[in-house]
Write a structure and sequence with these properties.
The complex is a heterodimer of chains A (115) and B (116). Chain A contains no helices and eleven strands. By secondary structure, chain A is mainly β. In chain A, the strands form two sheets. In chain A, strands 2, 4, 5, 6, 9, 10 and 11 form a seven-stranded mixed sheet that branches. A four-stranded antiparallel sheet of chain A has the order 1-3-8-7, with no helix packed on it. In chain A, a hairpin with a 5-residue loop joins strand 7 (64-68) and strand 8 (74-78). Chain A is globular. In chain B, strands 2, 5, 6, 10, 11 and 12 form a six-stranded mixed sheet that branches. Chain B has a four-stranded antiparallel sheet with strand order 3-9-8-7, with no helix packed on it. Classes of the chains: A mainly beta (115), B mainly beta (116). At the A-B interface, strand 4, strand 5, strand 9 and strand 10 of A face strand 6 and strand 11 of B.
């Protein structure tokens, strides 16, 4: 079956612009989480969506937002881009929430460069 | 709070050497523990997992045992191959009833290079 699909794979934006990243989870998976990966901070949790509702949120400013659609696809948006937002953004999907043995499957990520 | 501490890298070994990457954690209750691997230019792949104390996760020759008494989940492999070169991440998921149950907390990652 198809894995987690993230688009686009690479993106270059200018400071001050906004960007939208997309994630299509594995079929049947209802939970989608987003992570930011940088050399300095490592992998940090951004937020998680389940059934179109944000269930958990990490410690990121309000410029970072997301949403989930009825088909479980998710988008994240970053407004007023800063140089420090340059990172690999990873999306992960899992079958459900609150299930002890649920595994998270990751996409290949979107590499965002802010210039 | 929840946190994961991994052995600092990079780690360089010769092919067929024994590998250990240390991982310790701090968490409330009994988290699930994971090892993920990231190959160059790729996302994360789940390598193995353990969900309760004394569980041993294993996959592709890699093993890790959930040690509650030492709050550790060290990754081991008896004989590494060049193809094992990658970055390895230890992670925990808080217990299902805790807030943030689907949030993974990652260690900093350990870059492993295997020379032929």
């Amino acid at each position: 079956k198809a894995g987690v699909t993230q688009t686009p794979r690479y993106l270059i934006k200018t400071r001050g612009q906004q960007v939208t990243l997309s994630c299509s989870p594995i079929s049947g998976h209802r939970s989608v989480s987003w992570y930011q990966q940088t050399p300095g901070q490592g992998l940090q949790f951004l937020f998680e969506y389940f059934s179109e509702t944000q269930r958990n949120k990490g410690n990121f400013p309000g410029r970072f937002s997301g949403r989930q659609f009825s088909n479980s696809r998710s988008e994240m948006n970053v407004s007023t881009l800063e140089l420090g937002d340059s990172a690999l953004y990873l999306c992960a999907s899992s079958r459900s929430i609150g299930t002890l043995n649920t595994e998270a499957f990751f996409g290949q990520g979107t590499r965002l460069t802010v210039v | 709070g929840n946190s994961v501490t991994q052995m600092e890298g990079p780690v360089t070994l010769s092919e067929e050497a024994f590998l250990t990457i240390n991982c310790t954690y701090t968490a409330t209750g009994y988290p699930s523990l994971f090892w993920y691997v990231q190959y160059p230019g790729e996302g994360l792949q789940l390598l193995l997992k353990a969900t309760k104390a004394d569980d041993k996760g294993s996959n592709k020759g890699f093993e890790a045992t959930y040690r509650k008494e030492t709050t550790s989940f060290h990754l081991e492999k008896g004989s590494v191959q060049v193809s094992d070169s990658a970055v390895y991440f230890c992670a925990l998921r808080p217990p299902a009833l805790a807030q943030g149950a689907q949030k993974l907390v990652f260690g900093q990652g350990t870059r492993l290079t295997i020379n032929p």
